Amino acid sequence: MTEVKIGETWKAPLSAEFTSPYMGALKTFLVEQKAQGRRVFPKGSEYFRALDLTPLDDVRVVILGQDPYHGEGQAHGLCFSVRPGVRIPPSLVNIYKELQDDLGIPPARHGFLEHWARQGVLLLNSVLTVEMGRAASHQGQGWERFTDAVIRVVNEQEKPVVFILWGSYAQRKAAFVDRARHLVLRSPHPSPLSAHNGFFGSRPFSKANDFLKKHGREPVDWRLPDDVA
């Protein structure tokens, strides 16, 4: 899978993953899926989009998702984000509501989160591909091991980072993060099924920025531009 584009700053720290047997098996699985005529999202050039947009040295915040969206035209390699012109998913609607309550930022008219990623917010799904119309269809194929390695690499950075962990899945996945150096913010998932159980009112955006400023790092501009292509 080394022919797939990945951000330069991640290549050396993750080199052992790309040459490991499990990654070879994962590549074979994806090739076979496509050979069988199954549509896989996102497209191959966007599997590692989160790493392309957010260099390792620039990571200030990590937000963990679980799987890519499995609907037509939604997934593009960033968790919780959808392409411009695509209907904003319910979890992201709730994220925008909390952002407004927390920082007074009105909800964006789109769900395209690249502006966050380009500022050092690593929008990482645990599993990086999915079959169209089949949620969680690529779980257990090796992606989880790869994204565990990504989290470990970030955890090892000297610069303090904020880990925003929404829901029990993300919290289990990043349970090993060093809380002596980094800030770990835990709350229920923003899904409509759980957002009212403690996600609303958790104020992750202001807490993240307060921590970053306290440790001499630039806060994130969480306001999303209206002019997206």
Please write out the topology.
Blueprint: H1 8-11, H2 15-18, H3 21-35, E1 40-41, H4 49-53, E2 61-65, H5 90-103, H6 114-117, E3 121-125, E4 130-131, H7 143-155, E5 162-166, H8 168-173, E6 183-187, H9 204-214
Parallel strand pairs: 2-3, 2-5, 5-6
Antiparallel strand pairs: 1-4
Q: How does this structure look, described?
A:
With about 230 residues, the chain is an alpha/beta fold. The protein is about 35% helix and about 10% strand. The protein is built from nine helices and six strands, in the order αααβαβααββαβαβα. The strands form two sheets. It has a four-stranded parallel sheet. The longest helix has 15 residues. The chain is globular, with a radius of gyration of 17 Å. It starts with 7 loop residues before the first helix and ends in a 15-residue tail after the last helix. The relative contact order is 0.17. The model has no long low-confidence stretch (mean pLDDT about 95).
In brief:
The chain is of the alpha/beta class.
